[in-house]
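May I ask you to comment on the folded chain given beneath this request?
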Amino acid sequence: MFSNEVVSPPVAQLVPGGAVEVRDPAGKFLGRGYGNAHSLIAIRLYCGPADLPDDPALYVRRFREALQLRERVVPGRRSYRLCAGEADALPGVIVDRYDDVLSVQITTRGMEDRRPLLRAALEEVVAPRGVVFRGDVPLREFEGLPLDKGVWWGDVPARVPFEENGVRFEADLVDGQKTGFFFDQAENRAFLASRCAGADVLDVYAHLGGWALVAMTHGAASAATIESSPAANVLIRANAALNGVALDVRQGDAEAEMAKLSPQSLDIVCIDPPAFAKNRKSAGAALGAYKRVNQAAARLVKPGGLLFTSSCSHHVLPERFIEAVVHGARSAGRRLQLVRRGGQAPDHPILPQVPETEYLKHLVFVVR
């Protein structure tokens, strides 16, 4: 509930993080949650008539339901997103699981104040060996929270091992990007795995080299990565060694590095940039950026090759994203045929009444 939707008492009287019960003007119960007078989102509802925001059993139940969902939709996996905030009825709480180690991000005052309840519930439901807390995201500042990161409790190695699509990885959960890895692309990378035999592949904005490593472990002839972070490139090389494959690791700006490569020299280019639009106002500028990077990528693909391209910016609408990609390819003298639409993996569920929980757009094109 936004601050301008609250009739009484005045929003300024909301205790930051305090439990609230909400009713409509006629007195009908709408839900319980927590408030924050310092946030544009004044109240976050996540409790029904039988739930209380400060009941320890509520958090055990929510994490148990989240775990059961993952066991159903990503069976057999030990590393995935365990809790996806509002979509798992715990607004402001992100939990990524790396086998027996967790990476936790909390972005709201209400959940920050309930960290002891969250910890107790995670210990009961998951019993992790160690947990990292990633409270270093700007969203916390909007809630009046300090930026903070480090080992929350337990034993967390400097490099945490995990697997995805038969590929072995190591991630730095304390100092790496966000919560360590981007599990939301798992099924889109699986699609690449079955279509890369004998291909020359480029992975742009590579992070830990996920696309390139999937390609090389599933029969690609060669793979290169482009990543601007020196620390990430160290991990890319380590992950390549873990899997016994060779990668051409290139450090630098994505557009500048792509400009150095020969036109029509690659069978597959995978481009997975960070969110170019952090808010609605920046969506226009983001579309220009998506056009440029996809123009640079399409230029490199051989006729009949594949372009895998993504946007994780919720504020960029799907139809506008497609237009940006198509216009970029046209500027490179290429024509595109759309062969697949993808999205976030099922361990990142979508809450239909909260459109912000659906953010990842993924497209696969044949380049002509």
